[in-house]
Amino acid sequence: MHDMNRDVARHLRLLGELLEISGKEPYKIRAYYRAADTISRLASPVDDMDEARLTDLPGIGENIARKVIEYVKTGAIHELTELEESVPSGLVGMLDLDGVGPKTIHALWTKMGIEDIAMLEKAAKNRRLRALHGFGPKKEEAIIQAVAGYRRKTSRMTRKEAEELIGRIEPAFPGKNFTVAGSFRRGRSTIGDIDIVSTEAPARTNALLQEVADEIIDQGERKTSFSIGDRRVDVRFCTPAFAGTMLLYLTGSKQFNIKMREIALSRGEKLNEYGIEDREEGRTYTFPDEASVFSFLGMDYIPPELREDQGEIEHARRHTLPELVRETDIRGDLHMHSSWSDGALSIAELARLGEERGYEYIACTDHSASLGVAHGLDAARLAKQHHEIEMSNRSHSCRILAGIEVDILGDGSLGLSGPVLADCDLVIASVHSGFKQDRDVMTRRILSAMENEHVDIIGHPTGRLLGKREAYLVDMERIISAAADTGTALEINASPYRLDLDDIYVREAHDHGVMLSIGTDAHTREEAAAIRFGVGIARRGWCGKQDILNTRPFKGFFT
DNA sequence: GCCGTTTTCGGCCCGACTGTTTTCAGTCG
């Protein structure tokens, strides 16, 4: 995300949190949270937006627009600065404790002088909290547990980790009557907790969940929450008759659900996870699947990946949603490594793997020699590799494209010369060094690679490693605009550790008519299956089949 | 504070579960 957008979003959120702890009106607070949300998922920087452009954004009115402009100009928001002076800074951190919310914090602060997590923990252990109205021994114990949980709090999971966790939960559903919903189903690049809808009998499943759970958080006939591996899992039980509204509800997103319920309200209906109640007739309609819910509300089916309240609801009502790319549309993987550099598979093994996966082609894109660590290829070895690729292509139905992943060097030049690149079928240019350059230098560095006539694709364009390394500083607006001008494709790197481009930039690129390519960056057999993650990100970026380079058939690929 | 295929004012999604309560507030998703 753009730094300024991130800063502005963070400050608006903080403003909301401080107002909430101060006990201000909930709707005002919600407005700040919503505005922070909008700005944090904005692809273009707020730096140079005027009041008119800002107020066009959903959830941002005159008041918040002025605060955004104030922050961009002065680096501070006056109202926030004042609030920070009157509210101890440690209180905001207490919001991260499970089961501790703004009302609790307000009471602890004003009635007991508790100002941070350490003070709270001490008071709970000394059994002083039970003196407060509404607090008892169980609440004290819950707070002690919450502090412990906070200390081992982990960041969001990769999708791969989430899949492994789901694998550990599966034994509790021997009948397989469950669907993973939430951000996992929406295809988000990282996952916080796991949400599950199940049509199993609650009593039986609850007993089985006891076996897989590390700790049961709460348990009921309709809903059970537990932790496993320091992750939270929420299970909602339903019958097949109302599985549609239950799945819709638990898939979210939160903003999407709010908007859907507002639409139902405007029709004189009430939407919840059990169905849709016609308030006039007083009868409730139930829906066995999501499609019938959308249909009832006069909308087209919205794929989970689009459910973020980013315009998809309006499109669904006007019947103008795009048809999204599917995994079965993918005809080849455009980014794989072989044993010629740091991969595990030979060229022939790549071809066989491609055949097994039903691909027409795989681009073998090993590293160039300038990256010493990865047994990169120089011109001589590349020529030998091309010969082996030719041999393989004679005997396999899956064609290997003789590609290269060439380094974009610090000054924007490439790790291999023009004539060498000209001999390749496909050239991916990627940044693998000098991540600390300033924004303008990095941006111009990538732009010069895009201007090189041999470069087809920019690999993992922002260089992020999820949960490990932030994206380098780069002006994605300029990159996207240059990609449109030069006809260079931007990669959606499908590795679950990267998922780079981020979906907000994919959507921006898509809107600018930029072609995207999906590549797994696989070094092993197993990693080649990651293509599904990349397709998910493409879908979240509103991409159809026509927007993705590797949905093209082998013939016509080079046209 | 935001917003309008009812509205420029008066609304703002909805329900499960827990703990501390005698009927509900707080938190969460």
3D architecture notes:
The chain has helices spanning 3-22, 26-40, 51-56, 62-74, 78-86, 90-94, 102-112, 117-125, 137-151, 159-169, 182-185, 202-212, 243-251, 254-266, 290-296, 312-318, 347-356, 379-395, 418-422, 439-451, 476-486, 503-511, 531-540; strands at residues 157-158, 178-180, 190-191, 194-198, 215-219, 223-228, 231-237, 269-272, 275-278, 283-285, 332-336, 361-367, 399-407, 426-430, 457-458, 489-493, 516-519. It is built from 23 helices and 17 strands. Helix content is 43%, strand content 14%. By secondary structure, it is α/β, with parallel strands linked by helices. The radius of gyration is 26 Å and the shape is globular. The chain has 5 domains: 1-87, DNA polymerase, domain 1 (Orthogonal Bundle), CATH 1.10.150; 100-152; 157-237, Beta Polymerase, domain 2 (2-Layer Sandwich), CATH 3.30.460.10; 242-318, DNA polymerase, thumb domain (Beta Polymerase, domain 3), CATH 3.30.210; 327-551, TIM Barrel (Alpha-Beta Barrel). The structure holds one DNA strand of 29 nucleotides.
Total number of helical segments? 23
Main sheet record? 7 strands, parallel
What class do helices, strands and sheet pairing give?
alpha/beta
Number of E-type strands: 17
